[in-house]
Backbone:
């Protein structure tokens, strides 16, 4: 049996979609898997059980990437075809059982629940999941050696408006790892892409060298997941990295402002979020331009995030006990 999953170009949405894949693998043991996705998300699927191929869909002029997908898949009969992109070309690809993303004008509700609805699992939605191989876990041990607890922080996001200021993350880390914090003396692991280093520098430069784990840039998503798996708590902006932390089972606190938490909050029993005081409907200024406008997260205080982190950490300790 063979399964074809056509999923997102965006890392966060791709992570959310892996729950669907996990559920279908449970229902069809031994099925062989092909995944079509964007280049940023491709490494997420390298350790999927039964993975045969990852088709990287680089965007092409005149949408020729969909023709490329047809060329790579049309000669094979698929037992299960899951199209989360609603690509018309997949109607020309043979599939015994088909699942397609349901188009809706309404964007209300968790994105994860809308994805679960594709396979009729909205009453028991599959949580995001990530499979990590032994080699990545060995690399993570080198990057985060055994020792005291690790506070993982993702201070970046894909556009400036969603980024809580680096100085705020620095103050938060100092409080949480200080003598009276929830993780006294903890090491601080800072995550992000190579091109996001300027956003992370205020935090990086604030952490004492002996407690800093600088993991900004140079690591694929599964290695990052293996590092997050070794962390005690993750705090970060709404981003793919936030969803990756949640998928590893690490207690995850997402920070929200100009993106709707009711759609993209991290999902799982050890997840929570905290929002700006200015609501989503009022947060955007006139002439807003996501490429130029400064952060819209300033109405979220360090006190608010510290309190939310303490509550989540208390829940996590209760569960561990």
Residues:
């Amino acid at each position: 049996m063979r399964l074809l999953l056509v999923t997102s170009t965006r890392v966060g949405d791709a992570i959310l979609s892996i729950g669907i894949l996990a559920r279908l693998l449970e229902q069809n043991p031994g099925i062989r898997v092909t995944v079509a996705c964007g280049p940023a998300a491709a490494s997420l699927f390298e350790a999927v059980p039964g993975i045969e191929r990852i088709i990287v869909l680089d965007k092409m002029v005149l949408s020729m990437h969909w023709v490329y997908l047809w060329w790579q898949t049309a000669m094979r009969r698929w037992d299960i075809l899951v199209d989360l992109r609603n690509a018309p070309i997949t109607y020309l690809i043979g599939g015994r059982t088909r699942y397609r993303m349901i188009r809706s004008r309404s964007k209300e509700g968790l994105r994860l629940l809308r994805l679960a609805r594709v396979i009729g699992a909205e009453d028991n939605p599959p949580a995001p999941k990530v499979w990590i191989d032994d080699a990545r876990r060995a690399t993570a041990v080198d990057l985060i050696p055994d020792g005291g607890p690790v506070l993982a922080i993702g201070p970046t996001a894909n556009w400036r408006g969603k980024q809580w200021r680096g100085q705020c993350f620095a103050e938060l880390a100092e409080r949480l790892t200080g003598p009276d914090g929830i993780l006294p003396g903890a090491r601080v692991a800072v995550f992000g892409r190579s091109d996001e280093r300027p956003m992370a520098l205020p935090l990086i430069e604030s952490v004492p060298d002996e407690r800093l784990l600088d993991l900004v840039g140079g690591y694929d998503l599964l290695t990052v997941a293996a590092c997050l798996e070794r962390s005690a708590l993750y705090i970060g902006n709404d981003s793919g990295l936030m969803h990756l932390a949640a998928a590893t089972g690490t207690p995850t606190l997402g920070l929200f402002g100009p993106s709707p938490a009711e759609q993209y909050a991290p999902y799982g029993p050890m997840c929570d979020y905290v929002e700006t005081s200015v609501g989503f409907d009022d947060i955007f200024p006139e002439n807003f331009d996501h490429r130029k406008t400064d952060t819209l997260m300033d109405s979220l205080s360090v006190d608010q995030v510290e309190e939310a982190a303490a509550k989540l950490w208390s829940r996590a300790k209760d569960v561990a006990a």
Notes: The chain has two domains: 2-118, 143-320. The two ends are 42 Å apart (CA to CA). The chain has a mean pLDDT of 94.
